[in-house]
Prior knowledge:
Elements: E1 7-13, H1 21-34, E2 38-44, H2 46-49, H3 56-72, E3 80-84, H4 90-99, H5 104-108, H6 111-120, H7 126-140, E4 146-149, H8 154-171, E5 179-182, H9 216-225, H10 241-254, H11 258-264, H12 270-296, H13 299-328
Parallel strand pairs: 1-2, 2-3, 4-5
Amino acid sequence: MEKENKKVSFSGIQPSGDLTIGNYLGAIKNWVSMQKDYESFYCIVDLHAITVRQDPKELRSRTLKNLAIYIASGLDPVKNTLFIKSHVPAHSEAAWLLNCFSYTGELGRMTQFKDKSQKIGESVSVGLFTYPVLMAADILLYNTNVVPVGNDQKQHVELSRDIAIRFNNLYGQTFVVPEPLIAGSGARIMDLQNPEKKMSKSVENPNAYILILDSPNIIRKKINRAVTDDYAEVRYTEDQPGISNLINILSTITNVSQEDIVKRYEGLGYAGFKSDVAEALVEELAPVQNRIKELLDDKSYLEKIYSESAEKANYIANKTLRKMQKKIGLVLR
Ligand code: TYM
């Protein structure tokens, strides 16, 4: 397929905590499988991370770590544009413009905002409220066709669509209207201790999540401790959310369907199944972990990648930003 004809994929991850296998199986692994067929932009969304307080030193180091994780997971930094959002000021400018075309009502209905603001109360930042508009700016600046994300980000991508359509209706065709692309069995990896909740890097109990950088022994321990049930049968059903989650993890890594996994473990208990899930994860993550360490020892290489990518991203984003400014009626210089 010629480069010019390729559809555009855009996505990003916040450097707000160490990345989990939820991020890896729900997003990154999909990005890697898409790289042949799409013109791809994958961003480290540092400006999204600061919607809640971050330690400056940690934020800086996690931003670089995320870039290393993207590359170590198999994203070719030549084929994909891997960049840091704050290196492309057009995102912030476009977000302001789009703020003026977004409604407080629709932002207030975003479940992620509702959840977080309930926890934080009145001192929740304005940035957290308008966060989906910044996300819309990210996506729309690159003429994005598809946004590969986990299930929890679907609502935000749908809002980006609404904003794009609203702007296009007012000013004529300006934005490509993006589609969410939700991963199959990896789309919703659940908390290992409370499988009714999605796995997240922000819960206190470390047994609830597995980090991409967890050592093999920690991975084995965490899977071993993962909450199951008393059925003692590996089945993919709603009343076995813990086991279903482990089936999803195994299915995403091995590309074997949930049904085939269930068949394979028929009549067998949980011990062997859990140990196979753990070993699959260890095998998947070990080479990624080694590569991350190598990359983090070569800061100048990472610097080269993010600098070159920022140039390309700035060029494309600025073109769209100028188009927006012109349509709105701002005087261009
Ligand atoms: P973030 O940083 O919370 O998550 C990054 C990606 O990981 C996916 N994910 C999961 N998938 C499956 N199971 C889980 N337990 C799980 N946890 C996280 C998320 O769905 C996401 O795909 N607002 C976004 C970042 C963002 C963005 C964008 C995404 C900013 N601009 C533009 C796409 C396009 C966020 O906070 O994701």
